[in-house]
Amino acid sequence: MPEQLVFAMEVILNGLMAGVLYALVALGFVLIYKASGIFNYAQGVMALFAAMTLVGIMNGQVPFAHLINSTFGTHFHYFGWNVPALLAVILTMGVMVLLAWAVQRFVMRHLVGQEPIILFMATIGLAYFLEGVADLMWGSEIKTLDVGLPQGINLWIDETTFNIFDYGFFIDNLDIVATVIAALLVAALVAFSQYTKQGRAMRAVADDHQAALSVGISLNFIWIMVWSVAGFVALVAGIMWGTKSGVQFSLSLIALKALPVLMLGGFTSIPGAIVGGLIIGVGEKLFEFAIGPMVGGATENWFAYVLALIFLVFRPQGLFGEKIIERV
Amino acid sequence: MLDNSEGYVTEDGRKIGGVVMEMKNITLRFGGVVAIKDISFDIREGEIRAIIGPNGAGKSSMLNVISGFYVPQEGEVWFHGSKRPQMRPFEVAQQGIARTFQNIALFEGMSVLDNVMTGRLSFMKTNMLQQALWKGKAEAEETENREAVEKVIDFLEIQHIRKTPVSRLPYGLKKRVELARALAAEPKLLLLDEPMAGMNVEEKEDMSRFILDVNDEFGTTIALIEHDMGVVMDLSDRVVVMDYGKKIGDGTPDEVRNNQEVIDAYLGVSHD
To answer: Which tens digit of pLDDT belongs to each residue from B147-166?
Structure first.
């Protein structure tokens, strides 16, 4: 087999893995958008917030330590215990549910029936607010996150591919784990939204508030649920990205990478988010591999956005989105 | 003749039971505007009760008070013999009061079947995990609910559009789907807000037939608002007449028809 082709295969595999992580973030957007018609700009910051909270809880950090210490002149920073990863994840999920409740209680409830653009603006505000709160609670320094997920080169793949192609593929164990978790998450989310009573109610609320009320659905409950689910997806994305590249502010910028994914896949489609993520992941890696060297590299920074622009021109609803029909 | 608690027998021989819902001195204001002024009436088990009146009389407001969308400033709502605390609309729905809307409120993105299925949401008792995994009682429960829904769909003759997205349906059929969703909830009281508004004669006849059949077949208690006097008089057992937020008549269609105040409100009267 020609060497170039073998390289390309490795690139595609790595692209698929990266794509899964993009899809994970995009999923959070799709869920909230489907359930409430809101484009949640804060999704990326929620992932950052979740990851920071997780690290903070695991390390036994005192929340709002700086605030407390500068107010009272104390020197509290750590409780002096370490919380096991699994327990910390559960506690963090609790915090995300609290956050969902707060968002519903203090922001969304007051904006029922408003234009989508106003709700969108509210989520921008929420993003900056949450970013500040995250820093205030846990400090702004870069942290490492290790919840015990396997990391580093997968030796089995390396060996097997070496035997076949005379060239060992480098596939990170973390990417494999991320793929499995993303697949499970998607299956769970689809089962939840298609087959459960709460999922049905969620779709009903997205469609028509009045009608939903008339069949006995509590809007407040559904909204808290939707934001909790988004918080859960944010937590999963936060763990994956945080483990990969450290917990720091740039984590919230992965949300921007989700935008082209959504434009490709369509804002309303769960399969769309996955396929869109994979296309972008593979596309940018392949492009960098094939064209990158000719234009001086760093194409990964812009490739996704250009692809999304092209899609916007020819297929604005995305690959799987609901067709936009304007009636005159 | 109507105030005995045992109920009464209609002209066509149907037996009407005791009071299901009683409105006591309801007053509803929007700022300075009085939409409903000190109105009392009751709805009895198994009857078709109409609320009529000219435009702006407060009919829809009254229906919204019953279904919890509006909260009256004064007065009490009694349901099945006990005073109802202040409730939000979804809680009222869970109590067994289903409704349709004047300007159709359907889930436009869902199929007819899914729309009608939402009417069964309060019947689903198994937990989320069972439903998601399709295990245990969840499957039996889903089948049971589907059967109930299919029965309603058959009954209202909308089998042929079961899988059609609601947004593609013509107006008349949308109204029927909305009725189906309300019926699927097996309501103790069914509220219909102008079920025949904007329909042609044929559609009106269909809808009238369905309303009568629903009442006959399931014994559903129905309260409806309607403009078309002919339809109202044919359908209903008793009629409340409203004008400018006040009750000006209450009784059988014949009694109401001969009530001078009602005639004045509808035909206009010279103020001299």
So the answer is: 999 999 999 999 999 999 99
Residue A74 sits in a domain whose CATH number is: 1.10.3470
Q: How many domains does chain A have?
A: 1
A192 chain-B contacts, CB cut-off 8 A: 128, 132
Name B76's bridge partners.
Answer: B24
Q: What are phi and psi of B22, to 5 degrees?
A: -130, 130
Comparing CB atoms, the residue among B109, B122, B132 nearest residue A195 is: B132
Q: Tell whether ipTM is more than 0.90.
A: no
φ, ψ (nearest 5 deg) of residue A178 = -60, -40
Domain for residue B103, yes or no? no
Chain A CB contacts of B118 under 8 Å are 200-201, 204, 211-212, 215, 217
Q: HSE on the CB side for B176, CA within 13 Å? A: 27
Among the ranges given (A56-65, A143-152, B108-117, B131-140), the one the predictor scored with the smallest mean pLDDT: B131-140
Whether B255 is covered by a domain: the verdict is: yes
Choose, out of B131, B179, B181, the residue to mutate when testing the contact with A (most A CBs < 10 Å). Answer: B131
Measured between beta carbons, which residues in chain B are less than 8 angstroms from residue A113? none
Q: Residue A54 corresponds to which tokens in the numbers above?
A: 């997780």
> B89 and B14, same structural domain?
yes
Residue A288 domain boundaries:
7-144+183-314
Assigned domain for A77 exists = yes
Given an 8 Å threshold on Cβ–Cβ distance, is A215 in contact with B93?
A: yes
Final residue in a domain of this structure, among B165, B180, B195: B180
Distance from CA of A186 to the nearest CA of B (A): 13
- The whole-model pTM stands at 0.81
In sequence order, what E strands does B173-217 have?
Answer: 189-193
Query: Domain span at residue B133?
Result: 112-180
Rounded to the nearest integer, the mean pLDDT of chain A is: 86
Confidence grade of residue A153 (pLDDT, cut at 50, 70, 90) = confident
Domain count, chain B: 2
B80 with B199, same domain: the answer is: yes
**Is pLDDT at B168 greater than 60 in this prediction?**
yes
Alpha helices in chain A (DSSP H): 3-36, 43-58, 65-72, 85-106, 116-138, 155-165, 173-195, 197-207, 209-214, 219-245, 254-265, 270-290, 292-295, 303-314
On chain B, the residues whose CB falls within 8 A of the CB of A201 are: 118, 121
The answer to whether the CB atoms of A192 and B89 lie below 8 A apart is: no
| CB–CB contact B128 A192 (8 Å) | yes
